[in-house]
Fold this sequence. Notes:
The complex is a heterodimer.
Chain A: H1 3-21, E1 26-43, E2 46-64, E3 67-74, H2 79-99, E4 114-117, H3 126-136, E5 141-157, E6 162-179, E7 185-194, H4 199-216, E8 226-232, H5 234-242, H6 251-256, H7 262-265, E9 277-280, E10 299-304, E11 307-308, H8 315-321, E12 341-343, H9 353-357, E13 360-373, E14 378-391, E15 394-398, E16 403-407, H10 408-414, E17 416-419, E18 425-427, E19 439-441, E20 445-452
Parallel strand pairs in A: 4-6, 8-13
Antiparallel strand pairs in A: 1-2, 1-5, 2-3, 5-6, 6-7, 8-20, 9-10, 9-12, 10-11, 13-14, 14-15, 14-16, 17-20, 18-19
Helix pairs in contact in A: 1-2
Chain B: H1 16-23, E1 29-45, E2 48-66, E3 69-75, H2 80-97, E4 114-118, H3 130-144, E5 150-168, E6 173-191, E7 194-199, E8 206-209, H4 217-235, E9 238-239, E10 243-249, H5 251-263, H6 268-271, E11 301-303, E12 326-330, E13 333-334, H7 341-347, E14 355-356, E15 365-366, E16 371-373, H8 380-386, E17 389-401, E18 407-419, E19 422-428, E20 431-435, H9 436-441, E21 443-446, E22 453-462, E23 467-475, E24 478-486
Parallel strand pairs in B: 4-6, 9-19, 10-17
Antiparallel strand pairs in B: 1-2, 1-5, 2-3, 5-6, 6-7, 6-8, 10-24, 11-12, 11-16, 12-13, 14-15, 17-18, 18-19, 18-20, 20-24, 21-24, 22-23
Helix pairs in contact in B: 3-4
Amino acid sequence: MSFLPETRRLFDDLADTAFSDLKAGEALSLQLSAEDQTYVRFNDSNVRQATAVLQRNLALTFQWAGRQVTFTFDLSGHLDHDRALLRSWLERARREARTLPEDPFAVPLQDHGTSEHEHSGTEPDAAAAVKAIARVTQGTDFTGLLAAGPQVRAVRNSAGLNHWFSTASLWVDYSLFTTNASGDNKAVKGRFWGPAWDEDRFQAVLAADKARLAFLKRPARPIAPGEYRVYFAPAAVAELIAMFSWGALSYRAYRDGNCPLKRLIQDEVGLSEQFTLKENFCLALTPRFNSLGELPPVELMLIEKGQLKNLLVSSRSAKQYGVPSNAADPSGWFGEHLRAPELMAGNLPETEVLNCLGTGLYVGNLHYLNWSDVQAARVTGMTRYACFWVENGEIAAPINDLRFDDSLYRLFGSALEALTRESPIHPAIDTYHCRALGGSKIPGALVGTFRFTL
Amino acid sequence: MSLPVNFYPELPAFDIHRALAWVQAEADWIGLRFVQEQTYRRTVRNHLPEDNAITLERGVMAEARVDGHIAYAGTSDLSQQGLVQAARRAAYLARICAPHALFPFTEGHRPPAHGRFVSTRRLGFDRLTLAELTDQLIRASRSLKVSDKIVSTAAEATLVESTVHYVSSSGADIEQQWWLVSSHCAATAQDGTETQQRSLNGPAARCRQAGLEFFDFSALHAECERAGREALELLDAENCPDETLDLILAPDQMLLQIHESIGHPLELDRILGDERNYAGWSFVKPDDFGRLRYGSPLLNVTFDPTVAGEFASYAFDDCGNPATREYLIRDGVLLRGLGSLESQSRLGIAGVANFRSAGWNRAPIDRMANINLEPGTSSLAEMIASVERGVYMQSNRSWSIDDYRNKFQFGCEYARRIEQGRLSDVLKNPNYRGMTVPFWNALKQVGCRDERELFGTPYCGKGEPNQLIRVGHAAPPCLFAGIDVFGGGS
């Protein structure tokens, strides 16, 4: 039996056992994250490090009399062993619940329904991908990571909730490097992804990125700190939109005083009418159910035409602050965060980007963003990869990396001139602990002025 | 009977030597790294328990060398069947990758070392009950709320017990065991449109190898009151000025400055380009070792995994290389990189024992461990007295640096203006920016041994697939001349 059916049987057996072991007044949720991945790291078109990981990680959330504990552990895949381990944790959970003070904002486990997304078909052939990547990238300075294999997210609880999501896919996230006429290292960023390895399609994606490298071979143009007209390519805008998950749209962060968009929420400032951001689970990059098994709306408008419509509210925040929940996921570094963001596209055709930019900076990617002043929604970070000085609608020269420091209120407010008509998908490529699911759909953005500081 | 904080679920014993016997015929060379780590995390928010979590990670990473290449396979199935499958999978990956390998592996990359390491602790985790810990965190949370203007508080404690046992078919046998603790306490103050946060030394900076002696709760509650009061002070403070001034950094900001602008750029795998697709490359070139004046002659930086109690001390790295204290920068000159045996042989440059993995499911890569700035001879009082106009910044709150580790911008929670050799006004939103080598060459005074403090972070991110690892950074306060500082606002 292969990984996916084995994992499902194990999870169901464990859940059935654990729920039948519960005593009166007890409630239990089981959350599974599992993967059978092959990760292969390349440097200079050769294999640097290859790692296979087979892991099934189970979290149990136990509730009794308004107390809640969460324990997480690795499953062995052997039912008898894992069942004994689960019972051991369950017994500890009972004892902890009797020791802890009541948590008035713990949300009682409920039946949020049933859903099933079962991967069918073959799993991606990682070995074929490794051989092909090494072969077709020869002669380039190719550096990157292949991740391939099946993934599972599942939640069941003792109230009856039962959600299962399995998928199998691969991506290659990579950089192509070159040296320009000034002797500087330059690179373009590329990404190939899909349900299976497809050498022809990979070659086509790679060829397009190689063509972009030609512009980077020109001598670099020194750019002094200051304010410039800028076009941000979709990958760069996706980095900026990711900051909205750092507390910016979190109801809890707002109530805690740590919300960067407080002035937008309080209607003191608005963003551009062109700025419309929503959660859109129709993108189908991640299961709709959250880590608790709750189901958020298929689409949730967050900011519409520059005005706030909704914040992300978890069921815990809803209980604490007496507001309606929209089943935002409370887990992760910053709590309530975007899981399927879509920034609505605009009217600017990609083919017109350079003409409309005229003279200014084309920024392909951004790097290492952080708030420099939360209250002012000010973000700092660096340009990275393919970034150019553009003159009169034509690429004049690559630039050396610049530091920026500017406010999202300005960037997506008064300075936002246009969003591109084309809006690509950006699949999640995080692999901390396990390979992430999810992604975003984000267009490019033309802004009239943006501040560079170093 | 009271429930202790720690807990050991019923787990079958794991005999790694027996496991090695099961798998050692699967490849030319096999290594097994068994990791069992249990993390207890307790969080109180606004005086109410919120996060009561225990995490158990338990698995084995098998390494296999076939046709001169090493590949890895991790599994949490510790049965004979599971381990043989993992070893075969690692061997298979090594076989298919060998024709495309970046460099050949040798026996020297995996020394057959023997040894044992146990981190220092005086009080075991069983000496505190869950009820007592929860109560102390609630009290800490209350101590942070010194005014109605404190709108939220958080108090958190994390305790970790970790064991790694590494054996190989060439005879390595290394067992290491750690007890680790960290805490984080923070208050958010709000008045009208102004909001400010103050914590004890910045996010998760308080972390050590220790037992429960780490938690001096009576001192903690007093510190929490101070943090609450300082959050209030920030509400009424002026913005940090926007000009070029002398800058003193406290040890809880030095940790970030060392980490980002010395630790990462000196990692040999970055210099070799392995990280170019994720964390980035480095401005440091192989020719710079032994030549580059990285900082002023006052700059002395060590890789030191031998400091008892510091967060990333150990006796061997994850390939069995014995860990020793080494100077990375001495009298301002760059001497040595942060590179494992693999990177050292690829680059021909001296390195350290820093081949480290985040857990059983990740392969080791070049990491920092304890990267420390060695003490000088100045006191903080002398530094302040020597400054005509400047700023003293404490506790990191924002960090960003480019992918070559050149252009940085860092922010702190709390600052004081220095005028005519004295501390004066409190300043809010203190930030500074600079370039790595000019910044370290602006180092004008280094604090003395008595003022050195040990901090670290559990969250250093790097690698593909991504890994978070623990690092330690010890430093005294330091004075830098002529740095661009600035404040907040749109």
